[in-house]
Amino acid sequence: MQEFIECLSGKAAQKVTWTLALLEEMESPPSTYFKKLVNSDGIWEVRVSLGSNIYRIFCFFTDNAVVILTHGLVEENPENTTWRN
Q1: What is the reported pTM?
Q2: What is the rounded distance in angstroms from the CA atom of residue 31 to the CA atom of residue 36?
Q3: pLDDT digits (tens, 9 = 90+) for 20-32
Q4: Closest CA relative to residue 56, chosen from 78, 26, 41, 39
Q5: How far apart are CA 58 and CA 69, in angstroms?
Q6: Distance CA 35, CA 81 (A)
Q7: CB-based contacts of 56: which residues, under 8 Å, 6+ apart?
Q8: Rounded to whole angstroms, how far apart are CA atoms 84 and 77?
Q9: pLDDT in tens, 47-59
Q10: Which residues make Cβ contacts (< 8 Å) with residue 58, sequence separation at least 6?
Q11: What is the pLDDT of residues 65-82, one digit of tens each?
């Protein structure tokens, strides 16, 4: 996930890092930032908006309630989505 954050612009990387820190601190984060994907088997999404871009990070919980971040992508517009591990 570090690779994904490093490929982002300065402001985007800062906002994604801030959002991840916020989610770590909150007991019940708002669904604006963190929600379970519909019809998924335990896959959750961290969602960050900055300007017209949406940054999405997919994750899941382990048995010990540890969150594993797996993939990130940038949605600049519906026709142009960039995937990163």
Answers
A1: 0.82
A2: 9
A3: 999 889 888 889 9
A4: 78
A5: 6
A6: 20
A7: 45, 46, 47, 48, 72, 73, 74, 75
A8: 16
A9: 999 988 999 999 9
A10: 37, 43, 44, 45, 46, 69, 70, 71, 72
A11: 788 899 999 988 655 555
